[in-house]
Design a protein that fits this description.
Strand content of chain A: under 5%
Strand order of the largest sheet of chain B: 5-6-7
Radius of gyration of chain B: 23 Å
Order of helices and strands of chain A: HHH
Oligomer: heterodimer
Helix content of chain B: 25-40%
Strand content of chain B: 5-15%
Helix content of chain A: 55-70%
Distance between the termini of chain A: 89 Å
Order of helices and strands of chain B: HHHHHHHHHHHHHHHHHEEEEEEE
Number of helices of chain A: 3
Largest sheet of chain B: 3 strands, antiparallel
Number of helices of chain B: 17
Shape of chain A: rod-shaped
Largest sheet of chain A: none
Largest interface: A-B, 30 and 42 residues
Radius of gyration of chain A: 29 Å
Number of strands of chain B: 7
Structural class of chain B: alpha+beta
Chain lengths: 73, 367
């Protein structure tokens, strides 16, 4: 038979484990956005990838701006 | 300003994800697209590059409700003043008027800003690109954002880039950035529509800081004599840029272009076109704006049939303030010095009708 004081200690221990576990898990949680989960982040944080891709895009479709403009805008 | 390298424009700094609260929101929540896709084309399907224009309520409204509520009347976004002013000069004929506004949309409306083009990226007008790896800037940097659009006139004057002319004392002595005078509240507007930018009620004024200069007990005698007769700029600014004859059209490839005549550095004092409670002065500095009767001639004949409705020499607040200027040397620097005043002969004959309210009659030049 467990005495009332023992029950309190047991329940307190369980609550403590849950609370500590929650904080540990929370602290180790990765950012909402990670490179593994989002191709946006993976690509847009890689200089190497972006240089390659933007060069390919520029070669296919160079940005067009009229050369007829003269004077200060 | 030199544009960024293409890759720099879209490179996200790791600090954005780690430090910026906006980095806690997933990319697709603001920009759409598909973060699970394995090809660029699929990932970019449905992408919204600037989710803050024209309507920022979804991207910004949840947290910045008050600012977003003013977006529709924010002059940086709406360009209402441009539309109203062109509208006043435009023909009354419905078809002609429609063509003018269409041309204006093609050429002038591209210069709007948005939340993103001030706080995340450089403006589109200078080819965009993140200011700092997508980190949000509470105060847009002067050199990459404010002067990106306000470059030809304000930047050149304020930083002293006009040959032979000094920079503004607020910058050269104190290093003040745009935000020192032009607050965020002013930039976002007050939720009201304005036709004239000088009507914006929370715009800065010289007296806001230099209260003593124009108080009844002002120590400087010239301030006592001239206050409410001349604007501060009449005495404390130097020559500034004037632009002429902007024409717009499309080239053989169908790409829009503009052509302006050579700009001119000049200093002209004229009659105040719109005296108000805040600007009751008789004399103010005037700057020539680039509009001409033929600005939209490529698209429509007589598009600006009401050209004379407004002056082409407009109220100006040059950003090159000095304590001492050629005007402050002596009374005779201005009194009787017709060179400084906008006289009939200074105005092109075809623009005299438009400027009749600001041209100083010979007998009105202070003696």
């Amino acid at each position: 038979m467990v005495r009332p004081e023992g029950k309190v200690v047991w329940y307190s221990g369980v609550v403590l484990i849950i609370v500590v576990g929650f904080f540990l898990l929370w602290g180790n949680t990765d950012s909402v956005q990670s490179k593994d989960e989002s191709t946006c982040i993976a690509c847009h944080t890689s200089v190497k990838d972006l240089v390659k891709i933007t060069r390919e895009i520029a070669a296919k479709a160079p940005p067009e701006k009229s050369t007829a403009s003269e004077g200060e805008g | 300003m030199a544009p960024l390298e293409p890759y720099e424009k879209v490179l996200i700094d790791d600090a954005f994800l780690e430090e910026d609260p906006h980095g806690e929101v997933t990319c697709e929540q603001c920009h759409g697209g598909n973060p699970k896709a394995s090809t660029m084309k699929a990932a970019h399907k449905g992408l919204v590059p600037d989710p803050t224009y024209p309507d920022p309520s979804k991207a910004c409204g949840e947290c910045h409700e008050d600012t977003v509520a003013k977006n529709k009347t924010n002059l940086h976004v709406s360009l209402n003043a441009y539309k109203d002013i062109i509208g006043m000069r435009a023909s009354d004929k419905k078809g002609t008027r429609k063509k003018v506004f269409k041309a204006m949309d093609t050429h002038c409306s591209a210069c709007h800003s948005s939340c993103g083009q001030c706080h995340v990226s450089r403006p589109d007008s200078v080819e965009g690109g993140f200011v700092e790896g997508h980190l949000f800037q509470k105060t847009p940097p002067m050199d990459t954002n404010c002067t990106a659009c306000h470059g030809s006139r304000v930047e050149m004057e304020y930083l002293g880039k006009n040959k032979g002319l000094p920079g503004d004392v607020h910058y050269t002595k104190e290093g003040m950035q745009c935000i020192a005078c032009h607050s965020g509240e002013e930039m976002h507007g007050m939720g009201k529509n304005y036709t004239y930018r000088y009507d914006v009620e929370n715009a800065p004024s010289c007296e806001g800081c230099h209260e003593d200069a124009v108080s009844p007990t002002a120590k400087t005698r010239t301030h006592q004599i001239h206050k409410e007769k001349v604007s501060c700029h009449v005495c404390h600014s130097v020559a500034y840029k004037n632009c002429y004859s902007c024409h717009v059209g499309k080239d053989k490839k169908g790409l829009p272009y503009f052509k302006t005549e050579k700009t001119e550095m000049a200093f002209k004092i004229g009659l105040n076109p719109r005296p108000s409670k805040d600007r009751p002065y008789k004399f103010v500095t005037l700057r020539h704006v680039p509009v001409s009767k033929e600005t939209f001639a490529f698209y429509v004949k007589d598009g600006l049939a009401n050209f004379d409705a407004l002056p082409t020499w407009k109220l100006a607040t040059p950003h090159n303030i000095q304590r001492k200027t050629p005007q402050t040397k002596s009374c005779k620097s201005c009194h009787g010095n017709k060179e400084l005043f906008l006289l009939d002969g200074d105005v092109k004959p075809e623009e005299r009708g438009a400027n009749k309210g600001v041209i100083v009659p010979d007998n009105a030049v202070p003696r």
